[in-house]
Specification:
Largest sheet: none
Shape: rod-shaped
Number of strands: 0
Helix content: 55-70%
Strand content: under 5%
Structural class: mainly alpha
Radius of gyration: 29 Å
Distance between the termini: 86 Å
Number of helices: 3
Order of helices and strands: HHH
Length: 89
């Protein structure tokens, strides 16, 4: 007679132990715009690198002209990205 409550208590304890993490914990949701953030970050780094190359070579020594040329080249080279779609030719 004492075994039934003991068996019930043991089963309840095992059940709570194995399902405790599933009932009350929630997965953090990922940022839905992570791809756009990565593309925009890539665009900024690529343009900064290309501006440095243009300034060093003397093709566009002025900062504004170097940025405009680098932005134009980025839009042509990576036209399939959403970061380049905002550029007007």
């Amino acid at each position: 007679m004492n075994r039934i409550p003991l068996l019930l208590l043991a089963t309840l304890g095992v059940g709570l132990f194995t399902s405790a993490g599933c009932l009350w914990s929630k997965k953090p949701k990922q940022n839905p715009s992570i791809a756009a953030d990565v593309e925009e970050s890539f665009k900024q780094r690529w343009i900064a690198r290309r501006m440095a190359e243009l300034s060093a070579s003397g093709e566009a020594p002025e900062g504004r002209a170097a940025r405009e040329q680098a932005t134009r080249e980025f839009a042509e080279k990576y036209e399939y990205t959403s970061a380049a779609k905002g550029y007007q030719k």
